[in-house]
Amino acid sequence: MRKKRLYILPFDHRGSFVKMFGFSEANLTPEITSRLTNYKHIIYEGFLIAVEKLGVPKESAAILVDEQFGSKIQEDAQVAGITRLLTIEKSGQDEFDFEYGDQFGEHILKFKPDYAKVLVRYNPQNDQEVNKRQAARLKLLQDFCRQNRIGFLFELLAIPTPSQVADPKITKIYFETALQGKIMLESIKELHKYGIEPDVWKLEGLSDPYQMDAVAEETRTAGRKDVGVVVLGRGESESKVHEWLTVAAEIPGIIGLAVGRTVFKEPLVAYHNGKIGRTAATNTIAANYKSFVDIFEKK
Fold first, then answer.
1. Which tens digits make up the pLDDT trace of 141-152?
2. Strand, coil or helix: what is 224?
3. Which distant-in-sequence residues (6+ apart) come within 8 Å of 257 by Cβ?
4. CB of 194 closer than 8 Å to CB of 139
5. C-alpha–C-alpha distance, residues 114 and 82, integer Å
6. Which pLDDT tens digit goes with each residue over 145-175?
7. How far apart are CA 260 and CA 76, in angstroms?
8. Where are the alpha helices (DSSP H) in the chain?
Protein backbone atom coordinates (compact mmCIF):
# COMPACT_ATOMS: atom_id res chain seq x y z
CA MET A 1 0.00 0.00 0.00
CA ARG A 2 1.32 3.43 -0.92
CA LYS A 3 2.16 5.62 2.07
CA LYS A 4 -0.01 8.71 2.39
CA ARG A 5 1.34 11.58 0.32
CA LEU A 6 2.66 14.63 2.11
CA TYR A 7 2.80 18.05 0.46
CA ILE A 8 4.54 20.32 2.93
CA LEU A 9 4.68 24.10 2.68
CA PRO A 10 7.60 24.88 5.03
CA PHE A 11 7.91 28.39 6.43
CA ASP A 12 9.72 27.62 9.65
CA HIS A 13 12.68 29.80 8.61
CA ARG A 14 13.76 32.19 11.32
CA GLY A 15 17.21 33.72 10.87
CA SER A 16 16.98 33.70 7.08
CA PHE A 17 13.39 34.93 7.25
CA VAL A 18 14.42 37.94 9.33
CA LYS A 19 17.24 38.77 6.91
CA MET A 20 14.98 38.32 3.88
CA PHE A 21 13.38 41.67 4.64
CA GLY A 22 16.54 43.50 5.66
CA PHE A 23 16.06 43.12 9.40
CA SER A 24 18.60 41.94 11.98
CA GLU A 25 18.06 39.20 14.54
CA ALA A 26 19.97 41.27 17.07
CA ASN A 27 17.53 44.16 16.73
CA LEU A 28 14.12 42.55 16.66
CA THR A 29 11.69 45.08 18.08
CA PRO A 30 8.09 44.18 18.95
CA GLU A 31 6.98 46.06 15.83
CA ILE A 32 9.30 44.09 13.55
CA THR A 33 8.33 40.82 15.21
CA SER A 34 4.67 41.68 14.61
CA ARG A 35 5.36 42.37 10.93
CA LEU A 36 7.22 39.09 10.48
CA THR A 37 4.42 37.22 12.24
CA ASN A 38 1.98 38.84 9.83
CA TYR A 39 4.13 37.79 6.86
CA LYS A 40 4.01 34.20 8.06
CA HIS A 41 0.24 34.45 8.23
CA ILE A 42 0.18 35.62 4.62
CA ILE A 43 1.95 32.39 3.67
CA TYR A 44 -0.61 30.41 5.66
CA GLU A 45 -3.46 32.27 3.94
CA GLY A 46 -1.96 31.30 0.58
CA PHE A 47 -1.76 27.69 1.72
CA LEU A 48 -5.44 27.73 2.70
CA ILE A 49 -6.44 29.19 -0.68
CA ALA A 50 -4.58 26.35 -2.40
CA VAL A 51 -6.44 23.78 -0.31
CA GLU A 52 -9.88 25.39 -0.24
CA LYS A 53 -10.07 26.84 -3.76
CA LEU A 54 -7.37 25.36 -5.99
CA GLY A 55 -7.83 21.69 -5.25
CA VAL A 56 -4.74 20.74 -3.27
CA PRO A 57 -5.95 17.66 -1.35
CA LYS A 58 -6.41 18.54 2.29
CA GLU A 59 -5.50 15.03 3.44
CA SER A 60 -2.01 15.44 1.96
CA ALA A 61 -1.44 19.18 2.50
CA ALA A 62 0.72 20.18 5.46
CA ILE A 63 2.44 23.19 6.97
CA LEU A 64 5.79 23.41 8.73
CA VAL A 65 6.05 26.52 10.88
CA ASP A 66 8.04 27.63 13.90
CA GLU A 67 6.92 28.66 17.36
CA GLN A 68 8.67 32.05 17.32
CA PHE A 69 6.59 33.61 14.54
CA GLY A 70 3.94 30.95 13.99
CA SER A 71 2.33 30.02 17.31
CA LYS A 72 -1.09 31.35 16.30
CA ILE A 73 -0.85 29.56 12.96
CA GLN A 74 -0.14 26.26 14.72
CA GLU A 75 -3.22 26.79 16.87
CA ASP A 76 -5.48 27.83 13.99
CA ALA A 77 -4.31 24.96 11.78
CA GLN A 78 -4.98 22.45 14.52
CA VAL A 79 -8.59 23.63 14.77
CA ALA A 80 -8.86 23.49 10.97
CA GLY A 81 -7.64 19.91 10.85
CA ILE A 82 -4.50 20.73 8.87
CA THR A 83 -1.50 18.42 9.15
CA ARG A 84 1.11 20.35 11.13
CA LEU A 85 4.84 20.08 11.61
CA LEU A 86 6.77 21.98 14.27
CA THR A 87 10.45 22.81 13.90
CA ILE A 88 12.62 21.83 16.86
CA GLU A 89 16.19 22.83 16.02
CA LYS A 90 17.98 26.05 16.86
CA SER A 91 18.11 28.18 13.73
CA GLY A 92 21.25 28.55 11.62
CA GLN A 93 23.57 26.26 13.61
CA ASP A 94 26.32 24.15 12.06
CA GLU A 95 25.77 21.61 14.83
CA PHE A 96 22.21 20.60 15.62
CA ASP A 97 20.89 21.51 19.04
CA PHE A 98 17.42 22.06 20.44
CA GLU A 99 15.86 25.52 20.17
CA TYR A 100 14.60 25.31 23.73
CA GLY A 101 17.28 23.10 25.24
CA ASP A 102 16.10 20.50 27.72
CA GLN A 103 12.58 21.95 27.53
CA PHE A 104 12.11 20.87 23.89
CA GLY A 105 9.51 18.29 24.92
CA GLU A 106 7.35 20.83 26.69
CA HIS A 107 7.27 22.99 23.58
CA ILE A 108 6.29 20.03 21.38
CA LEU A 109 3.46 19.03 23.71
CA LYS A 110 2.28 22.64 23.84
CA PHE A 111 1.23 22.35 20.18
CA LYS A 112 0.95 18.56 19.78
CA PRO A 113 1.93 18.64 16.09
CA ASP A 114 1.54 15.69 13.77
CA TYR A 115 5.32 15.71 13.26
CA ALA A 116 8.30 17.17 15.05
CA LYS A 117 10.87 18.26 12.46
CA VAL A 118 14.60 18.68 12.88
CA LEU A 119 17.26 19.85 10.42
CA VAL A 120 20.80 18.47 10.65
CA ARG A 121 23.86 19.23 8.53
CA TYR A 122 25.77 15.99 8.21
CA ASN A 123 28.71 14.25 6.58
CA PRO A 124 30.16 10.99 7.98
CA GLN A 125 33.65 12.23 7.06
CA ASN A 126 33.39 15.32 9.24
CA ASP A 127 34.16 15.64 12.96
CA GLN A 128 33.17 12.33 14.56
CA GLU A 129 32.50 13.81 17.97
CA VAL A 130 30.12 16.35 16.47
CA ASN A 131 28.35 13.60 14.55
CA LYS A 132 27.99 11.49 17.70
CA ARG A 133 26.56 14.44 19.66
CA GLN A 134 24.07 15.16 16.92
CA ALA A 135 23.05 11.50 16.73
CA ALA A 136 22.53 11.38 20.50
CA ARG A 137 20.26 14.42 20.37
CA LEU A 138 18.36 12.96 17.45
CA LYS A 139 17.81 9.73 19.38
CA LEU A 140 16.55 11.73 22.34
CA LEU A 141 14.02 13.51 20.13
CA GLN A 142 13.05 10.29 18.38
CA ASP A 143 12.38 8.50 21.66
CA PHE A 144 10.28 11.42 22.87
CA CYS A 145 8.23 11.36 19.68
CA ARG A 146 7.66 7.62 19.93
CA GLN A 147 6.58 7.89 23.56
CA ASN A 148 4.10 10.64 22.74
CA ARG A 149 2.85 9.27 19.41
CA ILE A 150 4.16 12.19 17.40
CA GLY A 151 5.69 11.65 13.98
CA PHE A 152 9.40 12.27 13.50
CA LEU A 153 10.55 14.07 10.33
CA PHE A 154 14.26 14.41 9.78
CA GLU A 155 15.73 16.91 7.31
CA LEU A 156 19.19 15.83 6.24
CA LEU A 157 21.45 18.39 4.58
CA ALA A 158 24.50 16.73 3.06
CA ILE A 159 27.48 19.04 3.55
CA PRO A 160 31.04 18.92 2.18
CA THR A 161 34.14 18.32 4.29
CA PRO A 162 36.38 21.32 5.06
CA SER A 163 38.90 20.06 2.49
CA GLN A 164 36.18 19.92 -0.16
CA VAL A 165 35.09 23.45 0.70
CA ALA A 166 38.69 24.64 0.29
CA ASP A 167 39.19 22.82 -3.02
CA PRO A 168 38.59 25.25 -5.93
CA LYS A 169 37.91 22.30 -8.23
CA ILE A 170 34.83 21.35 -6.24
CA THR A 171 32.31 23.85 -7.56
CA LYS A 172 28.66 23.97 -6.50
CA ILE A 173 27.67 22.11 -9.67
CA TYR A 174 30.35 19.46 -9.19
CA PHE A 175 29.35 18.91 -5.57
CA GLU A 176 25.68 18.53 -6.44
CA THR A 177 26.24 16.14 -9.35
CA ALA A 178 29.21 14.06 -8.19
CA LEU A 179 29.33 14.16 -4.39
CA GLN A 180 26.01 15.10 -2.83
CA GLY A 181 24.18 11.83 -3.57
CA LYS A 182 27.07 9.77 -2.20
CA ILE A 183 27.19 11.80 1.01
CA MET A 184 23.44 11.41 1.43
CA LEU A 185 23.73 7.64 1.05
CA GLU A 186 26.63 7.39 3.51
CA SER A 187 24.87 9.66 5.99
CA ILE A 188 21.65 7.64 5.96
CA LYS A 189 23.60 4.41 6.47
CA GLU A 190 25.54 5.86 9.39
CA LEU A 191 22.47 7.39 11.01
CA HIS A 192 20.69 4.05 10.78
CA LYS A 193 23.62 2.51 12.66
CA TYR A 194 23.13 5.15 15.36
CA GLY A 195 19.50 4.03 15.64
CA ILE A 196 17.96 7.04 13.92
CA GLU A 197 14.69 5.91 12.31
CA PRO A 198 12.56 8.82 11.08
CA ASP A 199 9.01 8.29 9.89
CA VAL A 200 9.77 10.71 7.06
CA TRP A 201 13.10 11.85 5.62
CA LYS A 202 13.22 15.36 4.15
CA LEU A 203 15.98 15.18 1.54
CA GLU A 204 17.59 17.38 -1.06
CA GLY A 205 16.59 16.83 -4.65
CA LEU A 206 18.92 15.21 -7.17
CA SER A 207 18.73 15.65 -10.94
CA ASP A 208 19.99 12.12 -11.61
CA PRO A 209 17.06 9.69 -11.20
CA TYR A 210 19.40 6.76 -10.47
CA GLN A 211 21.06 8.65 -7.61
CA MET A 212 17.70 9.80 -6.26
CA ASP A 213 16.31 6.28 -6.44
CA ALA A 214 19.34 4.87 -4.60
CA VAL A 215 19.00 7.45 -1.83
CA ALA A 216 15.27 6.85 -1.44
CA GLU A 217 15.81 3.08 -1.41
CA GLU A 218 18.45 3.42 1.32
CA THR A 219 15.86 4.98 3.64
CA ARG A 220 13.69 1.87 3.19
CA THR A 221 16.28 -0.89 3.62
CA ALA A 222 16.00 -3.78 6.10
CA GLY A 223 12.21 -3.81 6.21
CA ARG A 224 11.68 -0.05 6.55
CA LYS A 225 8.89 -0.07 3.98
CA ASP A 226 6.68 2.35 5.92
CA VAL A 227 9.27 5.12 5.78
CA GLY A 228 8.59 8.00 3.38
CA VAL A 229 10.73 10.65 1.70
CA VAL A 230 9.80 14.21 0.80
CA VAL A 231 12.04 16.33 -1.43
CA LEU A 232 12.93 19.85 -0.33
CA GLY A 233 13.39 22.95 -2.48
CA ARG A 234 16.41 24.57 -0.82
CA GLY A 235 15.34 28.01 -2.05
CA GLU A 236 16.33 27.15 -5.61
CA SER A 237 14.74 28.51 -8.79
CA GLU A 238 11.33 27.34 -9.87
CA SER A 239 12.82 25.50 -12.86
CA LYS A 240 15.38 23.65 -10.73
CA VAL A 241 12.82 22.60 -8.12
CA HIS A 242 10.46 21.50 -10.89
CA GLU A 243 13.27 19.35 -12.29
CA TRP A 244 13.98 17.72 -8.91
CA LEU A 245 10.33 17.03 -8.19
CA THR A 246 9.69 15.61 -11.65
CA VAL A 247 12.48 13.12 -11.02
CA ALA A 248 11.27 12.40 -7.48
CA ALA A 249 7.63 11.84 -8.40
CA GLU A 250 8.56 8.69 -10.35
CA ILE A 251 10.50 7.05 -7.53
CA PRO A 252 9.00 4.53 -5.07
CA GLY A 253 9.17 5.71 -1.49
CA ILE A 254 9.10 9.41 -2.32
CA ILE A 255 5.73 10.55 -1.06
CA GLY A 256 5.82 14.29 -1.64
CA LEU A 257 7.58 17.58 -1.29
CA ALA A 258 8.64 20.30 1.11
CA VAL A 259 9.10 23.50 -0.89
CA GLY A 260 9.08 26.84 0.92
CA ARG A 261 11.11 29.84 -0.23
CA THR A 262 10.63 29.03 -3.91
CA VAL A 263 6.89 29.29 -3.21
CA PHE A 264 6.70 32.38 -1.00
CA LYS A 265 9.88 34.48 -1.16
CA GLU A 266 9.26 36.51 -4.30
CA PRO A 267 5.61 37.47 -3.59
CA LEU A 268 6.30 38.13 0.08
CA VAL A 269 9.27 40.41 -0.60
CA ALA A 270 7.19 42.22 -3.23
CA TYR A 271 4.45 42.72 -0.63
CA HIS A 272 7.00 43.95 1.91
CA ASN A 273 8.30 46.48 -0.62
CA GLY A 274 4.81 47.74 -1.42
CA LYS A 275 4.82 46.44 -5.00
CA ILE A 276 1.78 44.17 -4.59
CA GLY A 277 -1.11 43.92 -2.15
CA ARG A 278 -1.99 41.19 0.30
CA THR A 279 -4.48 39.49 -2.02
CA ALA A 280 -1.96 39.28 -4.85
CA ALA A 281 0.65 37.90 -2.47
CA THR A 282 -1.60 35.17 -1.07
CA ASN A 283 -2.93 34.20 -4.50
CA THR A 284 0.58 33.94 -5.93
CA ILE A 285 1.75 31.80 -3.01
CA ALA A 286 -1.30 29.56 -3.47
CA ALA A 287 -0.65 29.16 -7.20
CA ASN A 288 3.06 28.47 -6.69
CA TYR A 289 2.39 25.81 -4.07
CA LYS A 290 -0.31 24.20 -6.23
CA SER A 291 2.03 24.08 -9.24
CA PHE A 292 4.51 21.90 -7.34
CA VAL A 293 1.80 19.68 -5.85
CA ASP A 294 0.49 19.06 -9.36
CA ILE A 295 3.75 17.35 -10.33
CA PHE A 296 2.83 14.54 -7.91
CA GLU A 297 -0.93 14.65 -8.33
CA LYS A 298 -0.74 14.19 -12.10
CA LYS A 299 1.40 11.05 -11.84
1. 999 999 999 999
2. coil
3. 6, 7, 8, 230, 231, 232, 233, 245, 248, 292, 293, 295, 296
4. yes
5. 9
6. 999 999 999 999 999 999 999 999 999 899 9
7. 20
8. 15-20, 30-52, 67-80, 104-111, 128-147, 162-166, 172-174, 180-193, 209-218, 238-248, 261-272, 278-297
